[in-house]
Amino acid sequence: MKLNYKDLKDVQAWTAAGIELPPYDPEALAAQTQADPRWAHFGIGNIFRIFVGGIADRLLREGLMDRGITCIETFDFDVVDKIYVPYDNLALAVILKADGSVEKRVLGGLSEAIKARSADPEAWARMKAVFTHPGFQLATFTITEKGYALRNADGEYFGYVRADLENGPEKVTGAMGIVTAMLHARYQAGKLPLALVSMDNVARNGEKLRNSVLETARVWQEKGFVDAGFVDYVSDETKVSFPWTMIDKITPRPSMDVANGLEKDGVENMQPVITSKRTYIAPFVNAEGPQYLVVEDNFPNGRPPLEKAGVYMADRTTVNRSERMKVTACLNPIHTALGPYDVMLGHELFADGMSDPELSRLADQVGYAEGLPVVEDPGILSPKAFIDEVIHERFPNAYLGDTSQRICTDISQGVAFRFGETIKAYVAREGSAARLTGIPLAIAGWLRYLLAVDDAGNAYPLAPDPMAAELTEQLSSIRVGEPGSCEGQLRPILANVNIWGVDLYAAGLGEKIEAIFREELDGPGAVRATLKRHLDAL
Predict the structure, then answer these.
(1) Can you say how many angstroms the Cα of residue 349 is from the centroid of all Cα atoms in its chain?
(2) Is 194's pLDDT higher than 90?
(3) Alpha-carbon torsion, ordered 302, 303, 305, 309, to 10 deg
(4) From residue 501, how far is each of 19, 286, 307 by CA, in Å?
(5) Nearest 10 degrees: Cα torsion 42, 415, 54, 186
(6) SS3 assignment, position 509
(7) How much is the pLDDT for 14?
(8) Backbone phi, then psi, for 255, in 5-degree steps?
(9) What 3 state SS string does 28-71 have?
(10) Which pTM value belongs to this model?
(11) Is the confidence at residue 362, as pLDDT, over 80?
């Protein structure tokens, strides 16, 4: 069996392999979607296909939606060439449950894949056709935190952003420039309404997307590329809305075990690929079963009935509280705290670290003891029940195969939300965050991880991170085994408000983190000994 329109017609073979097929016709759906697009998505990797694509699939299966999703990639065009086109845009969802059972289903709602390149006239025209269609309702996003950024840690525009601002809407390359250019086309087509919905793990994600789009539009107005009416259009949330969301589903890199199992069942060409942009992706997506999506219900041109596919539709306050619950206390901070220590202590799989006595205690300290007390209950989800599920069911799920190094990817882009918000809450409540222990251990551990030497003295590669080169350069004179080699190199990092959202010295934590970091430099075994010493003292 091959994952394509033609071979899906052999229903008996797929059923024999335990793979559920869509009851609708994906090929006919694709034609309908291309003629009458309603929903586009930017950032068409793993989390999108299994979660957002899974929501669309459920609505399509139940007859609650009759159009698929237009899939747009702004960054890694290999994904289109290697994962979408050869498989007729189909995806195979594989749910790995904690009891070892597996669910397999073909998703047929990803109806078109476009490379967002202004230099490609055909692709650019097709995108404009989608965005200027009167019935087009929403564009959703999973482009990661860094996809929304216009500036680096020094507050300067990234080079490609500066070029997009200088060149105008017809010669853009970055995601925010592309999105703003498409909005401009929709404005020119009659100021048609639209919702732009970020689904990334970013606190106040809709606000972040809106600010970047508005800044791009305003600079273009200053340079004469667009008129003032366009800025007014983007600013008017009755015309262009930017709903806030909270999304949660652990989606690891593709598993070789899953790939081999699918091929053993008779599905051909399931092996994962690593693209030129270092995206780990496959024709299938493996993920856990639990998932949460809370969306601010603000769609000026209508929307699919998302609530009938398990999505919580809510107001902005509820979404914000749900997001803060997850990102600042109940999940992401625990991930970020444990990932670097997992690597340094030799745990390849994140689930293995959950049975490590020191790391299990660190998870409890960061989540239950320090995060939970300053989280507002969103009402629709219980923070205590959520963190219980995370620590006792989701994170220990060894069948997910989620790696510790994946958890370390792009940490610099998330620490302001994952730790900074909790730190600021303690400063606001008590005048200082000095009484925290788990979060300072987490921050010191991440900095120690950046030295790329584990607790046994062995080297390891760092996970991708846009600030990795800059941070490792700042730490380059520090040597494992020589605590005295740390003499002020951490201060520019720990005091950087652009990284943490707060000056950690002003918050009462800078010196404490420096002291922990020096302890972790003290030769083989120092990382574990430091963790144990500080956790035992609680």
Answers:
(1) 19
(2) yes
(3) -160
(4) 46, 34, 34
(5) -20
(6) coil
(7) 98
(8) -90, 130
(9) HHHHHHHHCCCEEEECCCHHHHHHHHHHHHHHHHCCCCCCCEEE
(10) 0.87
(11) yes
